[in-house]
Design goal:
Layout: E1 11-17, H1 41-61, E2 65-71, E3 86-89, E4 93-96, H2 110-119, E5 124-127, H3 140-143, E6 144-147, E7 152-156, H4 163-173, E8 176-180, E9 197-199, E10 203-206, H5 214-226, E11 230-233, H6 236-240, E12 247-251, E13 254-260, H7 261-266, H8 269-275, E14 280-284, E15 301-303, E16 325-327
Parallel strand pairs: 1-2, 4-5, 7-8, 10-11, 13-14
Antiparallel strand pairs: 1-15, 2-16, 3-4, 6-7, 9-10, 12-13
Length: about 325
């Protein structure tokens, strides 16, 4: 549709869970989590596995390189959301983040970092995870929505986004911090910024109604408008349906916006039209995984790095050992 954008990565990391369950440890501050009292735990495990598999297949068919890793551990119920513990950046930079919940800290994997070094041009890895010992947290591109073009980090204040860690990240990675308060319909702080907004190349999805301070709300909107993006305003109800939890990617035939089926169904025709002026919407059913309080954006860690070699042809993969990757 348009020229290649540094905002839209061509490759992602995904984790396929073998023991999925909504994390009881994170339920206190993640109001998007839902308990399923009707289905058995084993049923949820099987459905989550299938949803991650179908999504990986669908992205690969659209021309996205998918590095799919297995997680057979029952100790990491949120591992399906890898964007919280690491991020990648143009110029060969990687960040590793401090996680708020103790059982989420086990999600960090050296094999993924080593794959990035082997497959992509990585100049340095900055590890902030030691800040956990000081009670300082910053949960990656869940806590931050990054404008890679204008170099702005949009961040909602929460237990999972500490301003000290944010300042360090922005200094190291050359981003302008823009931090603000945002709340759900009950007045509780929204736990992750990426359920509230999505920044694409030519558009931005934003639940501005969730920003209670009208002055700060206008500042956030103005900062996005300065970049020339069309703002697609999301209602509180659409935010609750994960309409803000989307990500723009670069596929074979142009840019796509990966989004959940629930979120896509919540969008109005005019909103879809505005988005599809620059990128095609590609919805996936991840309704079981959404019980854990995250959606499609949370499931994808974008790779904003240059490959070391030509991308291999995308072919179906076969099962491998636990915790090893399958590369589409």
């Amino acid at each position: 549709m348009s020229k290649v954008s540094m905002q839209a990565p061509r490759a992602v990391v995904m984790i396929r869970p073998h023991h999925f369950t909504p994390n009881p440890v994170t339920a206190a501050d993640n109001t998007f989590q839902v308990r399923d009292e009707k289905r058995k735990p084993d049923d949820l495990v099987a459905l989550a596995y299938q949803e991650a598999t179908r999504m990986a297949d669908g992205l690969a068919e659209a021309g996205i390189t998918v590095h799919l890793y297995e997680d057979e551990s029952a100790a990491t119920p949120d591992s399906v959301f890898p964007n919280n513990w690491f991020s990648t950046h143009s110029g060969g930079h990687v960040a590793i983040y401090p996680m708020y919940s103790e059982n989420r800290r086990q999600e960090r994997r050296t094999d993924i970092i080593e794959m990035l070094k082997a497959e992509y041009r990585v100049q340095d890895v900055i590890d902030y995870s030691g800040l956990e010992k000081d009670g300082v947290f910053l949960e990656g591109t869940g806590a931050m929505v990054l404008d890679h073009i204008a170099r702005v980090a949009y961040v909602v204040r929460s237990n999972r986004a500490n301003e000290v860690a944010l300042e360090r990240f922005c200094t190291h990675f050359n981003f302008e911090p823009m931090i603000f308060d945002a709340v759900d319909r009950s007045g509780k702080a929204i736990y992750h910024t990426n359920v509230l907004m999505c920044v694409g190349t030519d558009f931005a999805l934003l639940g501005a109604q969730s920003i209670p301070d009208p002055w700060r709300r206008r500042e956030v909107v103005a900062r996005l408008e300065e970049t020339g993006r069309q703002i697609v305003e999301l209602s509180i109800e659409q935010i609750e349906d994960f309409a803000g939890n989307a990500i723009e990617l670069e596929g074979t035939d142009g840019r796509i916006v990966a989004i959940s089926g629930r979120a896509h169904a919540a969008l109005q025709a005019e909103q879809i039209s505005a988005i599809e002026q620059s990128a095609r919407l590609l919805p996936f059913d991840v309704s079981t995984i959404e019980l854990a309080g995250g959606s499609v954006r949370c499931m994808l860690a974008g790779i904003h790095l240059s490959r070391r070699r030509a991308q291999p042809a995308q072919t179906p993969f076969t099962a491998q050992a636990s915790r090893t990757a399958k590369h589409y």
